[in-house]
């Protein structure tokens, strides 16, 4: 900081042709400006200014130094204006990651609407069922489901989510229903990307690991397997709500269903979140609060 202050004082002295006038412009004393120039000359091991009682004159070294740093004050002002503009209006590229199906069905349409309202924002939307390291991989925002584990990140709740254990009517007719958690091992269990299912027992969260003959990291593939009667599985409400309502699927062990968990907007800590990050989070939360996003998607042709 002292180095920059000395360079700024040097440029102002040359511009004003006087230590006192430069000091007045910088709102410091003339003696302080003189000390800054002296320290700068000592650091550079050369004379930059020849001083007399009536005038100052640049040395050869001072002339060369001035040519390189004369635009620094304007460059700093321009940089500050650019950052100030960033802090006022959403601009730049948003890098967002989300689970594939949730992102395709629900986030993509909303993000596209957001871009229409904010044309200065560009989008890099990465869909993957892998949990991305936001800081290591340079993402601004992730949408994550269920319990959050990384306390180094900040989060805002986007919406509620419930998971249903269910099966087709054909499967239930042929194999019956489980009545306790212990009976799950007697059934054909279909697994998604998780290693366990989550239930509530005696008011406590309970994770149950089951053996599985079928596994996929695709929610739609898992839903198709349930519909075809291959077994039972646990899926979020936005996958199965319509099939449960129509009777195509049957809810199992509702007495053990875990209460609502969240869908979260997760982002790295920062002293001041950028306007683009704050605005997209506010926008998504407002849309989910005001609209039946899951229901409106299911009604699309």
Automatic annotation (TrEMBL):
Protein name: DNA-binding transcriptional regulator, LysR family
Record family assignment: Belongs to the LysR transcriptional regulatory family.
Superkingdom of origin organism: Bacteria
GO BP terms, alphabetized: DNA-templated transcription
SUPFAM superfamilies reported in the protein's UniProt record: Periplasmic binding protein-like II, Winged helix' DNA-binding domain
PANTHER family reported in the protein's UniProt record: HTH-TYPE TRANSCRIPTIONAL REGULATOR, TRANSCRIPTIONAL REGULATOR-RELATED
Keyword Transcription regulation: yes
GO MF term list: DNA-binding transcription factor activity; sequence-specific DNA binding
DNA-binding listed as a keyword: yes
Keywords of the record: DNA-binding, Transcription, Transcription regulation
Domain annotation HTH lysR-type: ranges: 1-59
Short name of any one Pfam family annotated for the protein: LysR_substrate
């Amino acid at each position: 900081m002292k180095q920059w202050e000395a360079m700024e004082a040097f440029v102002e002295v040359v511009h004003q042709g006087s230590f006192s006038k430069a000091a007045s412009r910088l709102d410091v004393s003339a003696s302080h400006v003189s000390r800054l120039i002296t320290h700068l000359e000592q650091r550079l091991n050369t004379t930059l200014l020849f001083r007399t009682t009536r005038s100052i004159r640049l040395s050869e070294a001072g002339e060369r130094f001035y040519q390189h740093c004369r635009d620094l004050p304007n460059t700093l002002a321009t940089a500050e204006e650019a950052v100030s503009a960033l802090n006022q209006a959403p601009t730049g590229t948003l890098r967002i990651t989300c689970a594939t199906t949730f992102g395709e069905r629900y986030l993509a349409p909303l993000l596209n609407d957001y871009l229409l309202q904010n044309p200065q924002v560009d989008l890099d939307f990465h869909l993957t069922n892998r949990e991305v390291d936001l800081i290591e991989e340079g993402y601004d925002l992730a949408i994550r489901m269920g319990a959050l584990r990384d306390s180094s990140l900040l989060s805002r709740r986007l919406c509620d989510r419930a998971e249903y254990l269910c099966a087709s009517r054909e499967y239930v007719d042929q194999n019956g229903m489980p009545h306790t958690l212990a009976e799950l091992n007697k059934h054909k269990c279909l697994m998604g990307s998780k290693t366990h299912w989550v239930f509530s027992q005696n008011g406590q969260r309970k994770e149950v690991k089951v053996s599985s003959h079928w596994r996929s990291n695709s929610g739609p593939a898992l839903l198709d397997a349930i519909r075809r009667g291959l077994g039972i599985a646990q899926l979020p409400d936005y996958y199965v709500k319509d099939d449960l309502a129509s009777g195509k699927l049957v809810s199992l062990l509702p007495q053990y269903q875990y209460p609502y968990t969240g869908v979260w907007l997760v982002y790295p800590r920062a002293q001041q979140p950028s306007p683009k990050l704050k605005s997209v989070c506010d926008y998504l939360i407002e849309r989910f609060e005001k609209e039946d996003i899951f229901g409106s998607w299911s009604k699309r042709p």
